[in-house]
Every structure is written in structure tokens, then in C-alpha cells.
Amino acid sequence: MKKSIVISPGDSVGVALAALKKGEQADGVTLVEDIDRGHKFALKEIRSGENVIKYGEVIGRALCDIAPGEHIHTHNMKTCLEGTLEYSYNKRDIALASPGISRTVNVFERKNGEVGIRNELWVIPTVGCVNAQAKAIVNSFRKKYGEPAGIDGCFTFTHPYGCSQIGEDHERTKLLLQRMVKHPNCGGVLVLGLGCENNRMDVFRETLGKYDESRTRFLVAQDVPDEIAEGVKLLGELYENARNDKRVPKDISCLKVGLKCGGSDGLSGITANPLVGRFSDYIASVGGTTVLTEVPEMFGAEQLLMNRAKDEQTFGKVVDLINGFKEYYQKNGQPVYENPSPGNKAGGITTLEDKSLGCTQKSGTREVCDVLFDGDSLTSHGLNLLNGPGNDMVAVTNLACAGCHLVLFTTGRGTPFGGFVPTIKISTNTDLWERKPNWIDFNAGSIVEGDSFGKKLEELTDLVAEVANGRMTVNERYDSREIALFKTGVTL
Questions:
Q1: Parent domain of 147
Q2: What is the phi-psi region of residue 450: left when phi exceeds 0, alpha when psi lies from -120 to 50, beta otherwise?
Q3: Phi, psi for 62 (deg, rounded to 5)
Q4: Is residue 111 part of a domain?
Q5: Is residue 105 part of a domain?
Q6: Are 326 and 389 within one domain?
Q7: In the β-sheet with 256-261, what is the strand arrangement from edge to edge?
Q8: Is the pTM of this model over 0.90?
Q9: DSSP string, 244-283
């Protein structure tokens, strides 16, 4: 196993793939101090004020003279990023590889022509006031029906919103919940309201658009004597409609896959994220769809994404995506580049450029075909960008509400989190895979131990197909299913 790596020929830093000791030789230099796994060391003398290069790109500026073999981190380098910028479109020629070998997955075909990879019953509260009632309805349904055949379970997804919200927050809460109501992974949904909230049930229904009335029920708790009993009754009706649904074979191109990272470390941009990027390229090659979000973690790598925009119009949308999120930070008086997190830094990531250049590896090499903002749903096959923050719970919720059937979630530090769609956790290092089998679905860490990207891509594609066919992810097995709705305004 290699103990260090130089990612790009022009880099001024190497990265430790395992803990290295002072005095060891690594990529042609003698280390002058210990280097932890995932952390960087200088390959040559770097003068104060000089750019530091990793991934062939600038990841920051030296704060002092740095000697060859010296540790490079927050103590001696800083970000070069600042404010909103003007960008130019320098379209990159993208050499399209031949289409990958397609596969068949077995999915549920819905009445509107969409497909789902699960056939679940959901209770969705319109307001946080009825969270306890939603849980009680699900628990009572489970007690009455046990493990009912024909569905993949009954779940609720609670949240604190739906009242005391105005403007964009109110509209966004309503919209995201409506997207959940119509998500194709759901075979039947009970929408549960209180009766006096801002997110009124009558307006919610009127603005829901087309939906399958045989698979949707609405209940206002204040309108009935016993909302728990009534909720179980309505779930029973939905169960009778969903229980006979059968999986049918479809090409894997029917899948819409979200791309997310959380708890990243210095190996994220070397193992798991490039692997997911290869998967994104594969899905695009067979006509499928992937979605990259976490806009703040595009800062510093945004020009690379812009140069992959399919046309001038898409380039303009990427610019709006990036500068719009910077302006959101500035409007709230917050630094644009207050990133990476303490955990990221402990794992070897120093600046936001360092983090972003690793994060965007998940996008692969294909062109950016579209950009989605609040209220948009997926319509374009290929790689899409989605507006939203880096927060794990919010980002996965946004990806699923945009239409993703599942999410590939890379992590170096580890997290038990899962969204309301299957969330495949991919470790960047083997140590995490071995320590946390109750968190992690797939190990990309073996790439630095000798496994090829080609081999791991086949294994990851196999896993995605198995999950689409019904195999439970770790977050599903441990019932880790959460949502978080993005909030930007005041609470009344």
C-alpha cells in the first residue's frame, strides 16, 4: 500500500494515506514532522504569500515560508477566496466515453409514469404541532398490522415548521412537503394537519397539483374526535391500495441519484468522491440522472463547473447559483468562507478551496445539463446542480424533494444520518468501514490499498442496483430517516 500520494503533477503538496513519522521519506522529501492520515506536507519550499497547489488548483496561500516535508494546514496557510465574483464562460471540450453497459432494475411504476424504488406508507405532518400524533398513528398502525406484506414499511417524517412562518420560508415548507407527498418511493401518504396553522390544509390541497387520489388521504386533527384512530383507519385504506403493487423491470437509466458528502476528510477527494464521480459519469452515459448540491462547497471550484455547462444559458444559471448563495451569507452578515468544519480540519482539509475541489469530484467529468432552484424538479438527464446549503439533513431532503430516488453519501469521519430516501453511506477510508458497520454501506478506502477505480465502480453500481431492487441500506435497517426544511427568514 502506498503511504502518500501526489494527486496532480503540478501539486506543491503531497497527502498522507496513512500516518507518517518525522524522518520518513514521502514522495521525494524527508518529513520534518509527523503527518496524520489525510493531511498535507510540502513537496518543495513554498514562500510566504505563494499559492499552495493541490488537485492541480490553488487551495490557498502560505502564511509564512514552508520548508519541504513540513506539515501544511491551518497554522501556515489560508483561503484565497473573497466575496462575489464575475465569471467568464470558457466551455471545456468534454470527451464523451462510450456508453456504459446498461443494467436492469426492478422498480414500482406509478400511475403518472414515474418509478419508485420503495413502496412505503408515509404520514407527513403539515405542521410540527402534530408530530407526536403522526408518530402515534404510525405506531398504532404497526401494532395493528404487524409487518404487513406488500409494502416496505410505514414511516413518518417530523419537522418543527408549518406555522409562524411567512414569505419564502412558508412557501418553501409547503412546497417541500408537497414534493414529499408526491414522491414515487411512497405507495400511499396520509397528510396530517392541526387545523389552525399557517400551512392550511385547504390551501395545501389546492396548490398540490395533480396527485393520485387513490394513494393520498388528508386529515385535520381538530376536525375529528380521535385523530389517532382516524389516522390508522385512513392508513388502512392506503395499505389496501398499495399492498398489491409489484416491481417491474426497467433500465437503470430510470434512476435519479443524489450526490452528497458529509464529515469529509483528506481522503474524500482521493477515494470516495472520485469514485462517485465515475458513477455519475456512468449513469449519465446510459441516460440516467445525477444531482450535485451543497453550493457553499462549490466555492473555489465553481469555475470548473461553469466551464462544463452545456451552453451559455446553463452557465448563467450556475453563476446565479453561486453568487446567489454568497449574497445570502452576506445579507445575514456572515462570512462567506466560514468552512471547513472542525471535523473536516481534523481530517486534513484546510481551506474551503481544499474542501470544494474534493467535494466536486463527485460530479465526475460530464457536462452540467441543468441547474435547479427552489421550486424546480428534475427534468434533464445527466448531471444537474441543485441550490441548497451543505448541511447534511437539509441537503439530502432537498435532493429527495427534487426527485432523487436515493442518495450516495460519502464520508470520512462517519455519520449515522439517513434521509427519507435510501442513503448509501460510502467511507473514504477502511478504518471507518471496519469501525462503523452500523453506519457505512460501502468502503471506498480500499482504493488506496490497491483496488482499482474500475473494480470499485462495478461494486458500487452493483450495490446501487441492489438497493433499487429493494435491498435495505444501513440507515433503513436502523430506522435513521430524517428530514430538515431549509429556513432563511424570521419566526413569528
A1: 120-244
A2: left
A3: -70, 135
A4: no
A5: no
A6: yes
A7: 368-372, 382-386, 289-292, 256-261, 406-411, 423-427, 442-443
A8: yes
A9: T---EEEEGGG-EEEEEE-S--TTTTTTHHHHHHHHHHHH
Helices and strands, counts by H and E, the chain: 13, 23
The number of residues in the chain equals 492
Residue 180 inside a domain? The answer is: yes
Q: Is there a contact between 277 and 364 (Cβ–Cβ < 8 Å)? A: yes
Lookup: cell for 383:
448531471
**Tens digit of each residue's pLDDT (9 = 90 or more) over 313-335:** 999 999 999 999 999 988 888 88
Is 66 within 8 Å of 304 (Cβ atoms)?
no
Q: Closest by alpha carbon to 404, among 289, 296, 321?
A: 289
On whether residue 327 sits in a domain, the answer given is yes
Looking at the fold, whether 263 and 172 belong to one and the same domain comes out as no
Ranges of beta strands (E only) in 118-226 are 120-125, 154-156, 186-193, 216-220
SS3 296: helix
Each residue of 453-485: pLDDT tens digit? Answer: 999 999 999 999 999 999 999 999 999 999 999
Number of domains in the chain: 3
H-helix or E-strand containing 202? helix 201-206
Do residues 388 and 275 share a domain?
yes
Residue given cell 460510502 in the structure block: 426
Residues 6 or more apart whose Cβ sits within 8 Å of residue 272: 261, 410, 411, 412, 426, 427, 428, 444, 445
